[in-house]
Fold this sequence. Notes:
Elements: H1 3-10, H2 17-26, H3 31-34, H4 51-60, H5 73-76, H6 79-82, E1 87-92, H7 100-106, E2 110-116, H8 119-130, E3 141-145, H9 160-164, E4 171-174, E5 182-185, E6 196-202, H10 210-223, E7 224-235, H11 240-244, E8 250-252, E9 255-257, E10 263-265, H12 269-279, E11 282-294, E12 301-312
Helix pairs in contact: 10-12
Amino acid sequence: MAEEEKVVQYFSRDFEWEELRDEVERNPKFSYHLSSFSPSLSSPSPVDADADAWRNFHRRHSTGTFFKERRYLLKEFPELIVFDGSIRVLEVGCGNGSTALPILRAKQNIIVYACDCSQDALDKTVEMIATSNFPSISHRFYPFLHDFSANRFPNWFLCSACKKCPHKKDFIFTPDANGEGLIRINEPAACCIGGIDYVTLIFTLSAVPFQRMSYILAELLTVLKPGGLLLFRDYGLFDMTMLRFRPEQRVGFREYMRSDGTLSYFFSLDIVRNLFLGAGFIELELEYCCVISVNRRSGKKMQRVWVHGKFQKPTVGTS
């Protein structure tokens, strides 16, 4: 089967989410996933989960074999490659580069800024890009260490003055031969890069405590240019991995903690909508992506559920 055919099959709607929901709700063994959450004194708190767990995770998986390149992204988010001019992309939680690499390879006009809380992850990303047989992409990739769940994004993305007046220009009065004067529009001052065209948030938001998600989205809104897009993909409600968590691994409603201390949240469309609209975004697309994946070794079919979303920063009335 050709690679193009594999991509098309990957994106097909293999089953209806509502049918899966009904199956789960009827099955008594899944009842604890549906009940309200009341933490016990011995329950770990998701708020206590910090970036150290993910740093340790990336240190253990520093070989880079844990993640596969996300080739489907350009099919799912064609906005990244249809634009003719130069674009700037911020990849949040870049991991080992499985998202940044296909974006950089897509077109020569793309610049990617990538952050992660793990230096090991950033080092692996740089290594992967340097050895990707695409030598021209390294100079368009700018990684930086940043714990986005707890800290504001650097001011060099979009400085405070440009956030207040995103369309401002520097005007200088220059007298002409008659002494009356002309207005010359200078290039924008080099106080910041002027904002980001696209933010990619791919299987990242689910990895932070639910209580911090609103803060993160509000911060991402500030670094986007007016009209810029946030491209979202993450775990959906009743995904196979959610149903595998045991009752004692629940640390919140639809929120779970693995044995290594890393978190995983499973989103409904309503929760995603409320989070993004509450942060000030405009909803463009939001849906479940339901795919049957087949385990190569066992031949077992697995029902995967992801949430696909596109959200836009308003062009007016934002700061």
